[in-house]
Design a protein that fits this description.
With 665 residues, the chain is mainly alpha-helical. β3, α4 and β4 form a beta-alpha-beta unit. The radius of gyration is 37 Å and the shape is elongated.
Length: 665
């Protein structure tokens, strides 16, 4: 009887069966018995079944025990029971041959070892397996452990071993191919450190996987592609069909036991998905193309304008829901070869909505530099371009340039004209602009929409509030405009929100409760989209300050400033809230320290109509601390602005009724 090896480190054994080292103990147990040799060896493609049979053959021969590998010419019924009959790829035998093996397996003294894949599993193979397994549990091949990997790559680093097992999922043939490539490329510990991603090994492995994907059934390949792309459905297959495909995939050494592809298999499958299928999936919106995901990354290197156009169309739809995703999709569309000028306005909108004002401005500057003034765009994109340019300038704290941009690219639709009116009023130029927003709620022949009516009421309420004499109707229109904007979920670029305009007018009327209600509703509805959240939180904090609710004001201020870079306009509002809280609820040293920390922010933006209230707070604190030179220029700008507007009483309150450096604030 052959002496058992002490460990799997025996060189001859390791070279004979590198893919089945983890089964060495079980294989020795098969030959180390006085009973007839009987075993079932199960594993997927490339798991080492043949290696294991050869090992058994050599061990039995070394013991001078009769052994025979079954060939196609052999008649099973003529082989004596004491001969250890080794059967490779039993799953490929026809029913007649399997029936003969079943007869042999039912004889307790007949020696038989079968090696097979778990799929396909005809009923005869299942019966044969059960008969053989009455003598001993099946020997399961296919998953390599860390200890076994170290036998294959004794010089590999720990990080290298973890990466190999991680990318292959421990599937035996993948680990073996990885080890082979590792050795062929002469990696050592230093090389692994220099190439911790194992790029060369991965490329070699992907070539082998790609070849195997080419040889499997079309249905299995499509299943693996779908799983690799994150698709939950499988072309309408029922549960039984999906289970069958999972079993087939495991037998092919491509799927793990949980039915998912090994990471490197998924990477290969994504890289080989036909472009026309990607086009269909992108257009249908079924791919979850989150930024940085494996699926999104797999689009790298694909140049196909049609796919790019579909990505751009998907990006347009995603701007409202997920502007960051939209930005990523536009970037991939450009890489795929789509003309970036076609969707430049939407791309800038996405960047602005994602909070990347600098990138939006750079893109819009590029469009302007290329001579794009909106003349060759559709009416929708023309207005989107005008709105995006204005919103970007406003975010930079330059409302006057936002107004000038509308003069350079005059808006066409009633909605865009309302946004231009809001901007013009903010810059102190509404009177010169005439009436850019007609009262008609929509285009001729079209039914009113929530957003369309919101824009009509916003324009009417704002114009009424700018008159020398005012009535409650201005606030009523503005509140209804804000409510409809909440319902319409409009995320178009704009320089200010209906809720903020309504709240400022309410404060001008002395109705702080109404201001709180309209802002609170807008905050819950995320008016304008996620990028306006800090703005609404700051205005809610401002109103909480006026309502003598310092705890709420502090909480909202903290929420607005947590983990985000505020725009120039929002930064001024935050500064005003900070000093307002210190002036009302802290001592003089605290107020002085707070003022020192925020006073430079008072000069960051150009003052516009919608910043007069927070400016008033900064002016009061500067006067109290004898530091008026920090706010003098901003205050002068505020005086000039309300003067240009005819000093409407609802908007002039922050600059009247208080003494400031000899002036009237």
């Amino acid at each position: 009887m052959t002496t058992l090896l002490n460990s799997s480190s025996d060189t001859r054994t390791a070279s004979m069966m590198p893919r089945a080292l983890h089964a060495l103990t079980a294989l020795h147990a098969v030959v180390a018995t006085d009973r007839p040799v009987r075993a079932a060896i199960v594993g997927g493609s490339g798991s080492g079944k043949t290696d294991a049979l050869r090992f058994l053959h050599s061990q039995l021969e070394a013991d001078d025990r009769p052994v025979r590998l079954l060939s196609a010419r052999d008649r099973i019924s003529t082989i004596p029971d004491d001969v250890a009959l080794l059967v490779d790829d039993a799953h490929t035998l026809d029913p007649a041959r399997l029936s003969q093996l079943i007869d042999r397996a039912h004889r307790p003294d007949a020696a038989v070892v079968i090696a097979y894949r778990s799929w396909p599993a005809p009923s005869e193979l299942v019966e044969l397996t059960r008969a053989v397994e009455r003598s001993a549990p099946a020997i399961l091949l296919g998953e390599v452990t860390l200890a076994e990997l170290r036998e294959l790559l004794p010089d590999a680093t720990g990080e290298c071993e973890e990466r190999i097992l991680g990318m292959t999922g421990g599937i035996a043939w993948l680990v073996f191919e990885c080890a082979q490539a590792h050795a062929a490329l002469a990696y050592d510990g230093r090389d692994c450190g220099d190439d911790d991603a194992h790029a060369d090994v991965t490329r070699a492995l992907m070539r082998r996987i790609s070849h195997r994907l080419d040889t499997v059934s079309p249905r299995l390949r499509r299943r693996i592609e779908s799983l690799s792309l994150g698709l939950s459905d499988n072309e309408g297959d029922d549960r039984e069909a999906q289970a069958e495909l999972s079993a087939e995939g495991q037998a092919e050494g491509l799927l793990l036991h949980n039915g998912r592809p090994a990471p490197v298999v998924a990477m290969t499958a994504r890289a080989s998905v036909p472009v026309d299928r990607l086009v269909d999936l992108v257009e249908a919106g079924t791919l979850d193309l989150i930024p940085g995901s494996d699926i999104a990354t797999s689009l790298d290197g694909i140049v196909d304008p049609l796919l790019g156009d579909r990505l751009a169309a998907r990006a347009r739809r995603e701007v409202v829901r997920d502007p960051r995703l939209a930005v990523t999709l536009f970037e991939y569309a450009i890489r795929c070869g789509s003309d970036p000028h076609v969707f430049a306005a939407s791309h800038a909108h996405a960047l602005w909505a994602a909070g990347d004002v600098d990138a939006a401005g750079a893109l819009l500057d590029e469009v302007a530099g290329d001579g794009g003034g909106g003349s060759d765009l559709s009416p929708t994109d023309h207005d989107l371009l005008a709105d995006a340019v204005a919103a970007t300038w406003a975010d930079r704290g330059l409302m006057s340039l936002a107004h000038q941009s509308y003069l350079a690219v005059p808006p066409l639709s009633p909605a865009a004209k309302t946004r231009a009116l809001v901007t013009a009023a903010g810059a102190g130029s509404a009177v010169q602009n005439g009436d850019p927003a007609p009262d008609a709620p929509g285009a001729a022949g079209s039914a009113p929409s929530a957003n369309g009516v919101a824009m009509q009421l916003w324009a009417r309420g704002l114009r009424a509030s700018l008159q020398a004499s005012h009535s409650r109707s201005a606030l009523d229109d503005l509140r209804r405009a804000s409510e409809l904007a909440n319902a319409g979920h409009d995320t178009s670029p704009t320089t200010e929100l209906p809720a903020v305009v309504a709240a400022i007018v309410a404060i001008g009327l002395g109705d702080v409760t109404a201001a709180h209600a309209v802002l609170d509703d807008a905050l819950r509805a995320r008016q304008g989209g996620a990028r306006w959240l800090p703005h609404l939180q700051l205005w809610n904090a401002w109103v909480a300050l006026q309502r003598e609710q310092p705890a709420d004001a502090r909480a909202l201020l903290a929420a607005a400033t947590a983990g985000t870079r505020l725009s120039a306009r929002d930064d001024l509002i935050a500064a005003a809230i900070s000093v307002g809280l210190a002036r009302r609820y802290d001592d003089t040293p605290t107020l002085e320290a707070t003022w020192e920390s925020v006073k430079s922010r008072a000069t960051r933006p150009e003052i516009d109509l919608y910043l007069l209230l927070p400016l008033g707070e900064l002016v009061i604190v500067a006067a109290r601390l004898g530091d008026t030179h920090w706010t003098q220029a901003a205050f002068d700008r505020g005086l000039a602005l309300v003067a240009d507007l005819g000093e409407p009483s609802l908007w002039s309150a922050p600059c009247t009724g208080r003494v400031y450096s000899g002036g009237s604030c």
